[in-house]
Amino acid sequence: MSEPMRVLVVDSFDDAGIASLRQIARVDVRPELTAANLPGVIGPYHALIVGSDTRVDERLIEAAYNLRVIACTGSRLDQIDVSAARLMGIEVRSGDAGNTVAVAEQTMSLLLRLSSLGGLGNPFSLADRSLGLVGFGRVGRQVARRARAFDMTILVNQPRLTPELALAAGVQVADLPDLLRQADFVSLHVPFNEETRHLIGARELALMPAGTFLVNTAHTDVVDCAAVMQALHSGHLAGAALTLPPDAPLSHPHLIPVQPIGKGSHDSRARDRDLARQIMDVLRVQPPSDSLSLKIVPSDRVIPHEYTDEKRVARLMSSLEAEGRLVNPPIVAEWDEQYIVLDGATRSTALKQLGFPYTVVQVASPDREGFALHTWYHAVSSEAPFAELVERLQKLPGLKLTPISADQAHLTLQERDALCYLLSRDGAALLAEIEPGAARLNVMNAIVAAYTAWGNVERTLTTDLGRLLGQYPQMQALVVFPQFTPETVFEVASRGDLMPAGLTRFIIPGRILRLNLDLAELKKEESLAAKRSWFNQFLTEKLARSRLRYYQEPVILLDE
Questions:
Q1: How many independent structural domains does the chain possess?
Q2: Local structure of 550: helix, strand or coil
Q3: What confidence score (pLDDT) does residue 293 get?
Q4: Rounded to whole angstroms, what are the CA distances from 374 to 342, 496, 511?
Q5: Confidence class for position 560, pLDDT limits 50, 70, 90
Q6: Are 457 and 481 in contact, with CB atoms under 8 Å apart?
Q7: Does one domain contain both 209 and 273?
Q8: Per-residue exposure over 26-65, b if at least 16 CB sit within 10 Å of its own CB, e if not
Q9: What is the domain extent for residue 49?
Q10: What per-residue confidence (pLDDT) applies to 265?
């Protein structure tokens, strides 16, 4: 069965927001989870909701092989490695519209408090002073609007020119050194990552004129707190308002500790409901791999349901190594967190034996219209007579053979102990039953192995002996099995058991052919999350330059 969307919530979240998400996804609320144990559970989830206290780093993102969106209920995204998330094709969303205003107002309050400490000789007003904003995102833009109302000159440093900055009125763009040299106040509004760690340190503080002020409402590690304290003690800085490290309390008469804006600073229920809508919008958009039912999955979760021919596997391994392409992906069904191979067991086994940690599969849904399972019958040809085959079968432990009427043979398959029946070329019939205490699947496999070794086996869907003898003149026996259900096959495979080869025939609508995947890319040592991101890009580019062709038969060709 196709897996449902799954959402993991590790922070407090509005009940109505959760109810909305449950319309399209399974939602698990687990506030006890921390950044330390999240990597072990995040894999199956498509959305993650965190607060400001949960660190979402590259290690966690690489473990999140299904993740499409990370949503933060806090006022900042400093604890989220946004660059790593976007590299994996993961959206990062925030419901902090109310908090944006709260942080901007907090910043203005801090500027007023700092100005009262004096600087440049005496206390002074904000009017006609210059404010340097490092970062011009949501918060930076709101601070600029309020600072202009105080008649301040606004200098802005933004690493990348954004449309908001290019069109903003009343601000001057400056590189960081120039901003630091010119501003009376410097306020930081950047996300925390390796590029912004200690963005303001001793060297940057030295560029600032004596008597200026520094404000940091962002992550504490955006500034080098030790360097700031030294500048305060020397009098180079007139004052600072900082988010302080929790484990290193610092104090100075001109140091104002900044309290992070909490979730209660605005209507958290409205925020959470807006965040839920954003998540639903992301989850409703199908990436190319989902729309085509293609997926990169761990090879150890791809399970065959029937025996494979090792000689055919070896030949295909040589072919795959020589060509370097996976032309047609195996077809699987999801069952009990595993992928049961319906067609392509030789391909999936060959890839596994070649050392591929991941395999590309097409996931078929048994619930889809047109999906069906038929049972093959086996026409067994040999120069030896039917009696010789019967003699071989009678030696198999756990098997009982009983003569029956050929006219009633199909009814005998409804018996509890029936395994199959055999028709000789002259119409005699034998019922194969399991003896008490014997393992049903073991005996069935032994039967197939015995007549496969005895003669040549052809698959057929008819029991018409006249037609079969016309096709196979040396046919000595027709072996007829009951019709299996998909659920029976899936249960057998999920237990680690195998059915005899050549019994099942799955009809799968919408098969994908000519994928032509580069196996060198598939074999690269990368996380599953990185593999899936690459695969979606590969499909996007392929579909952009290909014609997707549908046929009357259940086949889809991805032609170049």
A1: 4
A2: strand
A3: 86
A4: 12, 22, 17
A5: very low
A6: no
A7: no
A8: ebebeeebebeebeeebebbbbbbbbbebbbeeebbbbbb
A9: 5-74+267-285
A10: 45
